[in-house]
């Protein structure tokens, strides 16, 4: 590919992804729809079968699925630099907005204002809506609903990062045993500018950082090192996308629950991936450098996992055992989200009858009337401010 043609390709990638970064409201499921419209229907960079396979890959990996889909398409279109540009375009708009919000909250100290309470309350409706959507696709039958409920109970009883990982692992093992006889369709081959050697190096980096960062941490008394370690670990081991990161981030970020949920509510009002909440939390912890480090650390595992897996995906995707285990893992994700809906979302946000009334209104607008999330967030902030004036 010639230099000018390569520059044109990179420009196309940043143009398309930035457009999506400013317009993709509605969470991971909606993002997948926006991506398909832009990359499959409009630009025809890939066909539906390849797109569906990329989505399946990103559901298989821990981390933010929609961001990983964008990174994967960038990698296929323009190599590793294409993947980076695709991520930047999709992610930066919401990162900048959330950093500004964090700076405002820090400067004014207005954690208890009515409109911020409204942002916390709308998180209940948004997570409930996400739970309903995920249940339909990831736990559609009695067995997987049962797995989800058991995992929700265990998550509430064992509220630790290790507990969450163990719950996912056991659910995957159950899925493998129960569903291993079901057939799997073969996966198409992907044309990449990098090969299996690069993939193996990415896997080594992924696990090396995951293991060594906490080991070396005692020797570096730095807030920036601590931020990188925390957010890299969270980005590495959370399955199911942004909503499921909520309980782990709430434990790891060392931010008060009301401040945390205010940021989570604000993240619903902006387009792009929910993982950009890391920018808000990093800004609160250590200013602009903290925000930049938190965002990079949060998404770095996604890059390493996607680059590491794409060269091998055709083989992995065709294995019956992998697909069977995924059914258990996906049901566990629904259960973890169900637990998060109660604690910390509901317990921290709903403290009065008026709060629950706002939850009912916003949930109805989202689920029944299909309002865009950013509109519902605006309504919730206005209602929250109104309640404070009563």
TrEMBL record:
Domain of life: Bacteria
Disulfide bond is among the record's keywords: no
GO cellular component: plasma membrane
Its membrane topology: Multi-pass membrane protein
Transmembrane portions of the chain: 80-103, 115-134, 146-179, 199-219, 231-249, 291-312, 324-342, 354-372
Signal peptide (from-to): none
Keywords attached to this entry: Cell membrane, Membrane, Transmembrane, Transmembrane helix
Sample GO molecular function, one term: chromate transmembrane transporter activity
Cellular localization per UniProt: Cell membrane
PANTHER family assigned to the protein according to its UniProt record, in alphabetical order: CHROMATE ION TRANSPORTER (EUROFUNG)
Family that this chain belongs to: Belongs to the chromate ion transporter (CHR) (TC 2.A.51) family.
Protein name according to UniProt: Chromate efflux transporter
Organism: Psychrobacillus lasiicapitis
